[in-house]
Amino acid sequence: MAALHPSIPREVTDFLTAHKTYYLAAHLEPDGDCLAAALGLGMFLNRAHGKFVRYFDAGPFDRREIQHLARQFEGRLDPATRAEDPDPAVVVVDCSGPDRVGPVAEDLVGLPTLVIDHHATGEPFGDVQFVDTSAAATCYLIQLIIEEMGETPTQEEAEILLFGIATDTGYFRHTEARAAGLFAAVSRLLLAGASPKLAHQQMFGGYKLASRFLLARLINRAQVLEDGAAIVTWETLSDVEEFGRGSRDSDTLYELLFAVDGVRMIGLIREEPDGKCAGSLRSIDTIDVSKVALVFGGGGHRRAAGFTISGQVDAIRDQVVDEFLSALKRSSNP
């Protein structure tokens, strides 16, 4: 019988006690899991071990549900600050590769580095790696580390960790079978005082009517592939100008489209400033969208992946359509 939880390597807990200052870095275009993982671990290290912590993420903090966390993160580390901080080390959370850390990676060169992640793609980096692709969220791994170090999360830590787990699992919609370990861990967060109601409100509350109009536009313009097996849609800068960046609500878009009978894959391409596009890819069965994301220099999970690439939105959309068609063909002819 498989172990209920991932095991925590001794070198991880040793790393988290060996230094006096910890720089906690999360990935570009952050989501709730990466920010909450950094904050949850940092709160614990400061509270239980007296460590000094700083948080780094270059953003952009476009997702409505994470904007209240943005003020706690810095974009860069000043060399003078690094020189003054005693015995610094780095913990990179939820990053499949060093390029995902962004510009602050240049400021952290030469420091001892621990990587904590649950993504399947990317080249190994850092001095110590704790990567478990069976974990539903990086916040789940952070909780297990805290417990392995003999502590119980405080209510504040439990709330931020539950929020991260909930965001990365789509409020548990994407949780696979045999997830008893995850739900056992979540129950311990509830015992510590975390509120599922609060996590749900943070994820799904507070949208404006304009967000519903934007959803309608994205659905109305969607390309339907292979009799509805896949759907690709896109968002332009003019859409953002009209409806506002805060109107983005990809989770609801995925939920609505996956409710359509026969849909297996969804691609959302967003036009970004500076001639770039961000792609978010989702699947609900055996198709591995992280392999599609890898074609565009990205990565992620089997059922949720993404990328950022230079190019025009129409051209990137067409390339994603081609890759989706190829993936569907491979899945029908294994």
Query: H/E series, N to C?
Result: HEHEHEHEEHHHHHEEHHEEHEEH
**Biggest pleated sheet:** 6 strands, mixed
Number of strands: 11
Strands in their spatial order, largest beta sheet: 6-7-8-9-11-10
In CATH terms, what is the architecture of the largest domain? Alpha-Beta Complex
Total number of helical segments? 13
- Average residue-wise pLDDT: 93
Domain count: the total is 2
Helix content: 40-55%
- Strand proportion, as a percent range, falls in 15-25%
Give the helix/strand class: alpha/beta
In CATH, what is the homologous superfamily of the largest domain? inorganic pyrophosphatase (n-terminal core)
Shape from CA axes?
globular
What integer value in Å does the Rg equal? 20 Å
In CATH terms, what is the fold-level topology of the largest domain?
inorganic pyrophosphatase (n-terminal core)
Q: How would you explain this protein's 3D organization?
A:
The chain has 334 residues and is of the alpha/beta class. The strands form two sheets. A six-stranded mixed β-sheet has the order 6-7-8-9-11-10, with helices on both faces. A five-stranded parallel β-sheet has the order 2-1-3-4-5. Strand 8 and strand 9 form a beta hairpin. The protein has two domains: 194 residues, Alpha-Beta Complex (inorganic pyrophosphatase (n-terminal core)); 124 residues, Diaminopimelate Epimerase, Chain A, domain 1 (Roll). It is built from 13 helices and eleven strands. The radius of gyration is 20 Å and the shape is globular. Helix 2 runs parallel beside helix 5, helix 5 packs antiparallel against helix 6 and helix 6 crosses helix 8. Helices cover 41% and strands 18% of the residues.
